[in-house]
Design a protein that fits this description.
Layout (H helix, E strand, L loop, with lengths): L3 H12 L6 H7 L7 E5 L6 E6 L4 E4 L3 H28 L3 H4 L4 H10 L1 H8 L5 H20 L4 H6 L8 H14 L3 H15 L1 H4 L45 E7 L10 E9 L7 E7 L2 E7 L8 E3 L3 E7 L5 E5 L2 E2 L2 E7 L2 E4 L1 E7 L8 E8 L2 E2 L25 E5 L7 H10 L3 H7 L8 E7 L4 E6 L3 E3 L8 E2 L7 E4 L7 E3 L5 E4 L21 H10 L7 H8 L5 H10 L7 H11 L10 H22 L3 H8 L1 E4 L2 E3 L6 H11 L17 H20 L13 E4 L9 H5 L1 E5 L11 E3 L2 E9 L1 E6 L7 E4 L16 H5 L4 E2 L4 H6 L1 E9 L2
Helix pairs in contact: 1-2, 3-7, 3-9, 6-9, 12-13, 16-20, 18-21
Length: 816
C-alpha cells in the first residue's frame, strides 16, 4: 500500500506536469548513494564515507584537500536544494525561480550586497583558506555534474549553477546577518522618538538607564524613517530558517563539579526550525584533523563540536556591529553625498534582477557611500520645499548601512584552526580570526581547562553608542577600529568553576568599550546557573535535564499579580485555582501555561499600547517583530519582559496618565483585569468551559516548514507537523513566538550537544528534523520525536563504534 507521501507525490507530479515514472524520478532517484564506489574528477586519493544509523557521515580522507572535497560532495548529496536556496536568498536571486512574489526580497538583498562583498573577498583570503574553499566547491560541483538533482529542482524546472568559493563566504555573511539586527532596533527607536519624543521614549528602554537621555544627533529629524517596502516581505518569511534573532545557551563546568572529574560542555543554539535542518552533523578525519559535530551545508569544517583534545560551543554575543548613517545627497547630482563639507561620489552598482516569466529584468541601482550601501528606498527631492533637513524627500530617509559582515572575511580560517586545536590555549588563539558574527565561545580541553571568549570584530566608535541613526555628513560618528582581541571579554578557569552564557549581558559598567545596548534578558542564564549549583556532582544526564528545562522565571514573578484579580465567571475562578498550584513549567499539556501565555500576551499589548498607541506596526515592532524575510525578529525581542515586571511591582499609575489609547485601561488594576478577562474568554470560546482541559500545546505549536510546503498539496510532502511545543523565549528549552503570531513557534534549540571531556566517545548530540534534505529519505524526519523528548544520539567518534553502527559505506575514488 502506498504511503501518505507516495499518494501526495502523485498529485505533485500532476502539478509539475509530469507523467509515468514520476514517483521514482522525483523521489527515489535523487537519494544519495551511500554504498559502493563513485569515481570523481578532482580527487587525489580514495576517500571513505561511512554513514551511521543516524545518517551522520563520517569522512575518512588521506589529505586535507580530499577531505573538504568529500565534505562538499556529501553536503550536496543531502542538502543541495538548501544550499541553492540559501545562496539565492543572500544574493537576491529568488525571483529567477519563484517569480514576482520574491522581487522585493531580492531588491533588499541586492542593496545589502553580501554577494558583492563575498566576491570581492575571494582574492583577499589567506592561501590556506582559499584552498580549502576551492576543494569544497569542487566536491559540490562533482555532485552537481552527476545530474541527480533533488526533487525541488525538478518541480521548479531549473538547474543549479556551479558552486563558487564566494558562495561559501556569502553563507557566513548570511549567518552574520541572521544573528545581528541592531540596524533595525535603531530604526524602531527612531520611530518611537518621532511619536513620543526622546524624554518619554527612554522609559521604554528596558536595558538602558532611564536617567540617561536618548540624545538625538543635532541636525537630524527622523521623519520618514519607515523603511517603506521592507514591510512587504511577510509572504516570503518561510523561505528559510533565517530571520530569527539568534538566541542560544551554552555552559561548561570543570572537573570539580562533575561525576567524571573532567569538564562537561553543553550547547544548544536557538535558530529557526525548517525542513531541512539548518545543521548537518558530520565527522571529518584526515591526518592531524579528527573532528565531529555540526556543520553548515555550504561551508567546510565543523562549526560546533569536538576533536580528540578540545570541545567548544557558541551563543550569539548580541553585539552592535551595524550602524545606520543618514546621508545628505546632492539634489542636483543623485550620485553625490556630503561628507565634512564636501561632495563625495557614491559608487553605483547596477543590479539586474531577472524574474521568472518576465522578458526584461528589473534594474536596482544601489548607491554605496563611505559608510556602506543605501538600504532604503528613497527619492531625491524635486525641490527644496519638499526636502527635510536631512536632504532627503519626505518619503523615506536615505540610510547607509555600515556592517562588519561587508568588511570582514576571516571566519573560515578561525573554524579551521579550531578544528585542529590540541589545547584550550590553541583554541583561544584560533578565535583571533573569528570576525563575524561575534559569538560567546566556551571551550574545554582534556587537560581540564575551561574558558570563554567573546570572539568577533566589534567596532570602536568615535562618538556615541549608536542607539539611533546618525548623520553621515558630520564625520563625528565614524568607526575608529575594533576592540583588540586580548581586550575582548574572556576568562580561563574561573574561580566559580563554571561558565554560562545565554545572550545575556556579560560585562559590567567598568568595561572600557561599548559592546551593545541590546542584550537579551538574563532569565535563561540565571536558570541555568541555578540548576548547575542546586545539586552535587553533575553527570551527562543532569545536563540533558537542564537542556529540557521549561521553568519560567518571569511566570514566577507575574502569576502572583494575576492571583490578586477578582474572578467574575466560573472559568476565571477555576483558572485562578489552577494558577495557584502551578509549578511555573511551560509544558505542552499544561492548562496553567496556556492561561499565563494568553494573559501575558494581552497584558503586554495593553501596557505598551498605552505609551505607543494602538498602531499595530509600531507596537509589534517594539515587542520584537522584524520587518523583513531576513529579520523576522528584531533586537527588542524579549527585552520588554523585565521592564514589565518592574512596572508591575512599582504600580506607577502615571504610566496611564496620557494613554495613547482612548478607551484603554487607566490603572494597573484595570489593565490586569482587562487582560485576564480577555484571555479567559478567548480560551473558553476556543476550547470549552472546562479549564482543566485547556492545553498550552494547543495554542503553541511548531511546524518544520519547507519553502515549497507553502503550496498545497506540496505541504503534505515537504512539511512535518504541527507539533505541540512547550517553553517560551525565556525558558532554557526555548519555544519562542512572534508577538503578532503568538501561537506559531519560530525559535527553538536547533542543535543540542553534550560533550564529555573524560570520554569523548560518550558525548551526545541531536537536531531535527533529520540529516537528509530528501523527503523520501528515512533521515528526513527521523530525529523529530527524539528532539521533542529532548533525547540525544551518541556522537559516534571511534572507528570501531562507527563500523558497528554503519548504515552504508561509500568509497570515493579519483576518476581514471
Amino acid at each position: 500500500m502506498a504511503s501518505w507521501w507516495q499518494k501526495t507525490l502523485m498529485g505533485v507530479a500532476g502539478v509539475a506536469g509530469l507523467a509515468g515514472g514520476a514517483y521514482y524520478f522525483l523521489t527515489r532517484r535523487p537519494l544519495p548513494k551511500i554504498n559502493g564506489t563513485s569515481r570523481l574528477q578532482g580527487l587525489h586519493e580514495p576517500v571513505e564515507v561511512i554513514r551511521d544509523r543516524y545518517g551522520v557521515a563520517h569522512i575518512y580522507a588521506q589529505n586535507e584537500d580530499d577531505l573538504y572535497f568529500a565534505q562538499g560532495y556529501v553536503h550536496a548529496q543531502e542538502r543541495l536544494w538548501q544550499m541553492e536556496l540559501n545562496r539565492r536568498i543572500g544574493s537576491g536571486r529568488l525571483s529567477e525561480i519563484f517569480g514576482k512574489v520574491a522581487i522585493e526580497a531580492d531588491r533588499f538583498a541586492r542593496r545589502i550586497g553580501m554577494h558583492r562583498a563575498s566576491a570581492a573577498a575571494v582574492n583577499e583570503l589567506p592561501e590556506h583558506s582559499r584552498r580549502i574553499l576551492e576543494a569544497y566547491a569542487q566536491g559540490v560541483n562533482a555532485y552537481i555534474k552527476q545530474g541527480k538533482l533533488p526533487l525541488e529542482f525538478t518541480l521548479l524546472r531549473f538547474s543549479p549553477d556551479p558552486w563558487k568559493v564566494a558562495d561559501s563566504l556569502q553563507w557566513s555573511k548570511m549567518m552574520g546577518w541572521n544573528l545581528g539586527g541592531n540596524w533595525e532596533t535603531e530604526i524602531i527607536r527612531a520611530r518611537i522618538i518621532t511619536k513620543l519624543g526622546a524624554e518619554r521614549a527612554v522609559k521604554l528602554e528596558a536595558g538602558y538607564d532611564p536617567k540617561h537621555p536618548l540624545i538625538v544627533p543635532p541636525g537630524v529629524e527622523y521623519r520618514g524613517v519607515n523603511l517603506g517596502m521592507l514591510e512587504e516581505y511577510e509572504q516570503l518569511k518561510q523561505l528559510s530558517g533565517f530571520g530569527i534573532l539568534g538566541a542560544s545557551n551554552n555552559w561548561v563546568v570543570d572537573g570539580t563539579m562533575t561525576t567524571t572529574g573532567s569538564p562537561i560542555l553543553c550547547n544548544d543554539p536557538h535558530l529557526g526550525q525548517a525542513a531541512p535542518s539548518i545543521w548537518y552533523e558530520c565527522h571529518l578525519s584526515a591526518g592531524d584533523i579528527d573532528v565531529v559535530g555540526a556543520s553548515f551545508p555550504g561551508t567546510p569544517g565543523i562549526v560546533i563540536g569536538h576533536n580528540r583534545y578540545v570541545a567548544w560551543g557558541v551563543t550569539n554575543a548580541i553585539s552592535d556591529v551595524e550602524d545606520l548613517y543618514i546621508e545628505k545627497f546632492n539634489s542636483n547630482n543623485p550620485n553625490q553625498y556630503e561628507y565634512m563639507g564636501k561632495w563625495e561620489e557614491a559608487r553605483v552598482f547596477r543590479e539586474e534582477i531577472r524574474v521568472k516569466g518576465e522578458k526584461e529584468p528589473i534594474i536596482e541601482e544601489v548607491r554605496v557611500t563611505r559608510h556602506g550601501p543605501i538600504i532604503t528606498n528613497f527619492t531625491l527631492p524635486a525641490n527644496s520645499s519638499k526636502a527635510s533637513s536631512n536632504g532627503a524627500s519626505s518619503d523615506e530617509l536615505p540610510l547607509a548601512l555600515r556592517w562588519t559582515g561587508l568588511e570582514k572575511h576571516t571566519i573560515v580560517s578561525a573554524i579551521q584552526q579550531m578544528n585542529y586545536a590540541t589545547s584550550a590555549e590553541e583554541l583561544r588563539e584560533a578565535l583571533r580570526d573569528w570576525d563575524q558574527p561575534p559569538q560567546n565561545v566556551i571551550y574545554a580541553d582534556v587537560a581540564g581547562n575551561i574558558g570563554y571568549v567573546m570572539a568577533g570584530a566589534i567596532p570602536i566608535r568615535a562618538k556615541g553608542r549608536a542607539l539611533l541613526p546618525v548623520p553621515g555628513w558630520m564625520g563625528e560618528y565614524e568607526w575608529t577600529g575594533y576592540i583588540p582581541f586580548d581586550e575582548l571579554p574572556q576568562t580561563l578557569n574561573p574561580e566559580q568553576h563554571f561558565i554560562v552564557t545565554a545572550n545575556n549581558r556579560v560585562v559590567d559598567d567598568n568595561y572600557p568599550y561599548y559592546i551593545t545596548n541590546e542584550w537579551l534578558n538574563g532569565y535563561r542564564a540565571q536558570r541555568i546557573r541555578d540548576l548547575l549549583t542546586s545539586k552535587g556532582k553533575l553527570a551527562l544526564s543532569d545536563m540533558a535535564t537542564i537542556q529540557s528545562d521549561q521553568y519560567s522565571l518571569p511566570a514566577a514573578e507575574i502569576v502572583p499579580h494575576i492571583l490578586q484579580i477578582a474572578p467574575q465567571t466560573p472559568q476565571e475562578k477555576q483558572a485562578l485555582e489552577i494558577l495557584r498550584t502551578w509549578n511555573f513549567v511551560l509544558a505542552p499539556d499544561s492548562a496553567a501555561a496556556a492561561i499565563y501565555a494568553r494573559f501575558l500576551y494581552r497584558l503586554e499589548c495593553i501596557i505598551f499600547a498605552a505609551m505607543l498607541g494602538d498602531e499595530e506596526t509600531l507596537l509589534q515592532s517594539y515587542l520584537g517583530v522584524g520587518s523583513t524575510i531576513l529579520a523576522l525578529q528584531n533586537g527588542y525581542a524579549s527585552r520588554s519582559k523585565p521592564l514589565l515586571i518592574r512596572m508591575l511591582n512599582q504600580r506607577d499609575e502615571s504610566w496611564f496618565a496620557n494613554s495613547a489609547v482612548a478607551n484603554g485601561p487607566k490603572s494597573w488594576d484595570a489593565a490586569l483585569t482587562s487582560a485576564f478577562h480577555a484571555a479567559i474568554e478567548e480560551l473558553r470560546e476556543r476550547f470549552g468551559d472546562d479549564v482543566s482541559r485547556w492545553k498550552y500545546g494547543d495554542i503553541h505549536q511548531m511546524t518544520y516548514s519547507h519553502p515549497l510546503g507553502m503550496m498545497k498539496p506540496l505541504d503534505r510532502l515537504f512539511n512535518r507537523g504541527p507539533y505541540p511545543i512547550g517553553g517560551d523565549i525565556d525558558t532554557v528549552n526555548m519555544g519562542a513566538t512572534l508577538p503578532n503570531q503568538p501561537e506559531t513557534v519560530i525559535t527553538v534549540p536547533s542543535y543540542r550537544q553534550i560533550v564529555n571531556l573524560a570520554d569523548m566517545k560518550a558525548s551526545l548530540s541531536g537536531h531535527a528534523p533529520g540529516q537528509s534534505g530528501h523527503p523520501a529519505s528515512k533521515h528526513y524526519d527521523d530525529f523529530i520525536q527524539m528532539w521533542l523528548r529532548v533525547e540525544h544520539h551518541p556522537m559516534l567518534f571511534d572507528r570501531e563504534m562507527i563500523e558497528e553502527n554503519a548504515e552504508g559505506k561509500l568509497c570515493l575514488k579519483p576518476a581514471k
